[in-house]
Amino acid sequence: EPEVTQTPSHQVTQMGQEVILRCVPISNHLYFYWYRQILGQKVEFLVSFYNNEISEKSEIFDDQFSVERPDGSNFTLKIRSTKLEDSAMYFCASTTNGDQPQHFGDGTRLSIL
Amino acid sequence: TQLLEQSPQFLSIQEGENLTVYCNSSSVFSSLQWYRQEPGEGPVLLVTVVTGGEVKKLKRLTFQFGDARKDSSLHITAAQPGDTGLYLCAGEDSGYALNFGKGTSLLVTP
Q1: Residue A14 and which of A45, B79, B81, B90 are 20 to 30 A apart at CA?
Q2: Å from A98 to nearest chain B CA?
Q3: Which residues of chain B lie closer than 8 angstroms to A42, CB-CB?
Q4: d(CA B35, CA B44)
Q5: How many Cβ atoms sit within 10 Å of the Cβ of residue A43?
Q6: Chain A residues in contact with B97 (beta carbon < 8 A)
Q7: Could you report the per-residue pLDDT of B46-79, keeping only the tens digit for each?
């Protein structure tokens, strides 16, 4: 069964450094999402992306965050200047149509030192 | 953001027992989704409920959507150790963004 793949599985970065998290959504999917889950807390929506632009974003998704679909397969989340509180699991999800169930990757664990 | 409250937060039972977990909101959702998440992995979709009063079965799991589409329940019959995991409910918030509950952490011991 096709799946969403995320790399790396674990990223350790110094505070203030830039980090790029990568996702390869399911190939025929058109809607892409990023969520994060801080340890012990609930999964939180960050941003949705469709037709090469952001369709929706949460309050968490401030100017330090950006997303990009640089080619036909990858979907990336960039954090420009990481903070300690950015430490979390980051999940990518995709779906064929906005109202269809979202399929999640296994996440990238981001640790900011 | 519409709040989804899940209860209980933790549940530890013996193999073979039945259990029910709940997902409640004061808001109406067009649909609710149930996911299961295991440590170090992403949420895996179990079911989507759309119609008020709807009941869906997935082997030993029974999902129900409340008539008013504000709440949902998951009932597991004869739980097995393989059912251990974090059960999450999620509803569509504004647009297509999913709003998750905090989950029920289930432990089934042999």
Answers
A1: A45
A2: 6
A3: 88, 100-103
A4: 5
A5: 27
A6: 33, 45, 48, 56, 58
A7: 999 999 999 999 999 999 999 999 999 999 999 9
